[in-house]
Write a structure and sequence with these properties.
The chain is of the alpha+beta class and 316 residues long. 33% of the residues lie in helices and 21% in strands. The chain folds into three domains: 78 residues, Helix Hairpins (Orthogonal Bundle); 108 residues, Immunoglobulin-like; 92 residues, Orthogonal Bundle (Cytochrome Bc1 Complex, Chain D, domain 2), CATH 1.10.760. It is built from six helices and twelve strands. Bound molecules: dinuclear copper ion (CUA).
Length: 316
């Protein structure tokens, strides 16, 4: 309703109106009670003013119904806010099953975006309209924060781990992207644009790419260059666990614990292999901390993801 005013960002994602509705509800409740209370203060100040220099006030002792009323009404209002807010929060926190995954690496002071097909971008992110997009994000240095006001989404980007954010854009166009976490001298310049395109345009944009090949194929090459393939062999004869079909499965560790093989686990196992050893294997893998960049980690992760038992080419 306020999208025409310059002070209020456009609504350009499926989440935007849900966030705005809650926001305006909170605003309406606040305005209503602020006016009510301010009005009553003025009204009573006048109504019960001291009428003569010698007037003495009378004591008032409690009113049960008054107390019940001003306890129950705020309780009901706050429960509405709680339930409503929780439902919006869960919708924002849980991406749909099928998403278009894009990796984001933040660094002082730029945004690097990496599409699975191999397209890379800096400070500009192209996405198709009407499709759920999941950003898998990490930082090379300090904490940053992705914020796209028109989508009403915002999430921290933290070094050493992957955080997620998802959105579905509803209107083609260009939208501001800000860093919303103070990250040093040029924090205010750490900005970019999200370009929302029609699906056909997006496909054309993707295929007009750099020709560097997909993330997974880059990872495959790296896997050989780093000699990972000497131990991680597909035939279960290697000194390291078989990686084929591993991603998304639950792995039993030497300690007896279970761990789900996700991006964070693959990352940790590359950088610090000793942390979670798979049951049945020796802790012989060297640590790659400091030897592979964040981008190379993403390539390796995508390569491991692509190693499914079903025929190649079906992976996202
Ligand atoms: Cu990055 Cu502020």
């Amino acid at each position: 309703m306020w999208s025409g005013t310059p002070l209020f960002p456009q609504q350009a994602s499926t989440m935007a109106s849900r966030v705005d509705n809650l926001y305006f509800f909170l605003l309406a409740v606040s305005v209503f009670f602020s006016l009510l209370i301010a009005g009553l203060i003025v009204f009573y100040a006048v109504r019960y003013r001291r009428r003569s220099p010698h007037a003495v006030g009378t004591n008032i002792h409690g009113g049960l119904w008054l107390e019940v009323t001003w306890s129950v009404i705020p309780l009901l209002i706050s429960m509405v806010i709680f339930v409503w807010g929780t439902s919006v929060f869960f919708a924002m926190a849980s991406p749909p099953e099928e998403t278009l995954n894009i990796y984001v690496v933040g660094k002082q002071w730029m945004w690097k975006f990496q599409h699975l097909d191999g397209q890379r971008e800096i400070n500009e992110l192209h996405v198709p309209v009407g499709r759920s997009v999941k950003l898998i994000m990490t930082s090379e240095d300090v904490i940053h924060d992705v914020f796209v006001p028109a989508f009403r989404v915002k999430a921290d980007v933290v070094p050493g781990r992957y955080t997620h954010l998802w959105f579905q854009a509803t209107t083609p166009g260009r939208y501001h992207l800000f860093c919303a976490e103070y990250c040093g001298t040029r924090h205010s310049g750490m900005i970019g644009e999200v370009v929302v395109m029609e699906p056909t345009e997006y496909q054309a944009w993707l295929s007009g790419g750099s020709g560097e090949g997909s993330l997974a194929s880059g990872g495959e090459k790296l896997f050989q260059d780093l000699a990972c393939n000497t131990c991680h062999r597909p035939d279960a004869q290697g000194r390291g666990p078989v990686l084929q079909g591993l991603f998304g499965k639950t792995q039993v560790l030497l300690s007896g614990e279970n761990v789900v093989v996700d991006e964070a686990y693959v990352r940790e196992s590359i950088l610090n292999p000793g942390a979670k050893i798979t049951a049945g294997f020796q802790p012989i893998m060297p640590a790659f901390q400091g030897l592979v960049s964040e981008e190379q980690l993403l390539q390796l992760i995508e390569y491991v993801k692509s190693l499914q038992t079903q025929p190649q080419g079906l992976s996202k």
